[in-house]
Every structure is written in C-alpha cells, then in structure tokens.
Amino acid sequence: MKLFFVLNPVAGKGKSIELMSIIKRICEKENVEYMIKLTPRVGGAEDTARWGIENNYKRIIAVGGDGTVNEVVNGIVGSKTVLGVVPAGSGNDFVRSIGDPKEPEQYILDTIHGKVKTIDLGMCNDRYFINMASIGLDTQVAIRTQKTKKYFSGSLAYLVSALLTIFSYKGWDLNIQIDDQAFHAKTLLTAIANGKFYGGGVLPAPDAKLDDGYFDICHVKHMSKEKMFRVLPKYMKGKHRDIKEVQLVKGKEILITSDNPFPLNLDGEVSITNKAHFKLIEKGIDIIVP
Ligand SMILES: Nc1ncnc2c1ncn2[C@@H]1O[C@H](COP(=O)(O)OP(=O)(O)OP(=O)(O)O)[C@@H](O)[C@H]1O
C-alpha cells in the first residue's frame, strides 16, 4: 500500500520537520512505498492532499496538528481515501480521541500497519471538521491570540487574550436549533463535538464518540464573570456536567444564527459569521487507527 505523507513544516513550532527523517527510515525499513510532501503555505495541506489523490495514493497521512488534519480532511472528503495522522502539532487533540498517546516512531509504525475504521464527520456551512467546532468565548480568545502573538510569545499571548476577552465579555445572543428543539439563549460558549477534546486537552464533551452517529453538544449559558472563573477550570477537566448553566445533549443537525456576528472555530480554524449550520455525516470518513 503506497503512503502519502502531507507534512506541515511549521506545525508544533517545527516539531513535525524533525519527523521527516524518521518517516523515511521507518518506511524504508518496513519496505513501504511512500512519498512525503511539505505543505507550502497556510491552508496548503488541502491542495497537497488532493495532489495525492490525483496521483493514486489511497492512504494520506497528515503530519502536523489539528489544523493540518482539518485541511487534509477537506482535501480528501468524498474520495474514499483513508486518513492517517501522525501528531506533530501543539495541541494534537484529534488523536486523543483515537487512543493512548504514543511516541512518534510508534505512530508511524502503527500507521503503516494500522487497521481502517469508519468514523463520523462534521460539516459546518461548506467546510468539514473531524474533531470539534465551537462558538463563543473560547473562539474569541483564539481570534484575539492571532493579534496578540505579534507582541507576546506563545502562552503569554494566549493569557493576555484570555484576560482581555473575559473582561470585555458580554455574551452572544444566539438562536439555536438542535434537531427539532429551538431556543434563544444568551451564550458563553457552545461546543459541537465529534471527538472529545480541543484546546490542548480541554474536555467539553466527555461522552463524545467518533463513531456513534451523533454530535455531543455542550451549551454553556451566559453567567457572571465571577462564576466564569469558577466554572472554566471544571469545563477544562470535563467536570462541568452538573453546573446549572450547562446543557449537554446529543444531536445530528444544529443551526445557530444571530443578528450580530459571532466567532466560529472548526478544528482550530477560526472565522466570524452570522450563521453556522452543522450537519453530522454518519460514517463520513475512513481513518487509520494506530
Ligand atoms: N508552509 C507553511 N507555512 C506557514 N504556515 C503553514 C505552512 N503549512 C501549513 N501552515 C499552517 O500552519 C498552521 C498550523 O498548523 P497545525 O494546526 O497543524 O499545527 P499546530 O497549530 O502546531 O497544532 P495544533 O492545531 O494541534 O495545536 C495551519 O493554519 C496551516 O495552514
């Protein structure tokens, strides 16, 4: 089986590029036909993955973080190509829902010999996501971090953005429809989960399963800033189930609209929109389970 590795050279602050020689060594030792291509630019993994399909590769392995995985998914969806992941980003949240963490060498070996499993896929408006979508405070922090990164280094940029976002926070007025249940809510955040984790191990949907035919939706209503500081640590650990403002439900189709634009995150890629229409695509993609 020919393998095509789509490697993002800037993922994980360059961690991924170090894997190139390891991938070569393992593929040669295992006598596997392979090709590695580096992604050329932001958003470039999608086209690189399509190049792999056009050149008859049936297994395409994303080497990078969740952003790279998301781009490869959008490049291969509908093609019957199998997705593999060698985690080499900063968060690597998607693979946390597949199994126990391993050393990169083991991921590469297991990806060569791994089994194929069909899992669900998410769609939002015209984009696909494989792990997690969210709207609200967390996404606003991510958007702000893109700006503060110009002035501060990694974790400090995130901390400054989180504080600025919390102190200017007013909540988002959202019209939400989950299957046939519609409501209006002033919202702190909403996570729409296929996988369990995002943001480097944050656990909004502890019961989410990649292959159960449902999204797990975590809706957190508006609350005071004082309460937010108490609730967010619980949310991060997945211990937020009993909080009054938290609703955890399952669903297949979710429509979120608002008169005011709101921040939207799909597998870590962020944008601003007035409408997010999510659909679960049952058994939408085949992945290699290491
Ligand atoms: N050649 C390149 N130059 C600059 N950016 C690139 C290049 N190739 C890909 N990218 C971009 O790098 C970004 C980060 O990639 P990715 O999310 O995989 O890594 P990460 O942020 O380290 O990990 P994680 O999302 O798991 O925290 C993506 O937005 C991707 O489009």
TrEMBL record:
Domain spans labelled DAGKc: 1-128
Presence of the UniProt keyword Magnesium in the record: yes
Cofactor(s) annotated in UniProt: Mg(2+)
A Gene Ontology biological process term: phospholipid biosynthetic process
UniProt keyword annotations, A-Z: ATP-binding, Kinase, Lipid biosynthesis, Lipid metabolism, Magnesium, Metal-binding, Nucleotide-binding, Phospholipid biosynthesis, Phospholipid metabolism, Transferase
One MF term in the entry's GO annotations: ATP binding
Record's keyword annotation contains Magnesium: yes
Pfam families in alphabetical order: DAGK_cat, YegS_C
Cellular component terms per the entry's GO annotation: plasma membrane
SUPFAM superfamilies, per database record: NAD kinase/diacylglycerol kinase-like
InterPro entries (UniProt xref): ATP-NAD_kinase_N (IPR017438), Diacylglycerol/lipid_kinase (IPR005218), Diacylglycerol_kinase_cat_dom (IPR001206), Lipid_Phosphate_FormReg (IPR050187), NAD/diacylglycerol_kinase_sf (IPR016064), YegS/DAGK_C (IPR045540)
Signal peptide: none
Family recorded in the similarity comment: Belongs to the diacylglycerol/lipid kinase family.
Alphabetized NCBIfam families for the sequence: YegS/Rv2252/BmrU family lipid kinase
Protein name: YegS/Rv2252/BmrU family lipid kinase
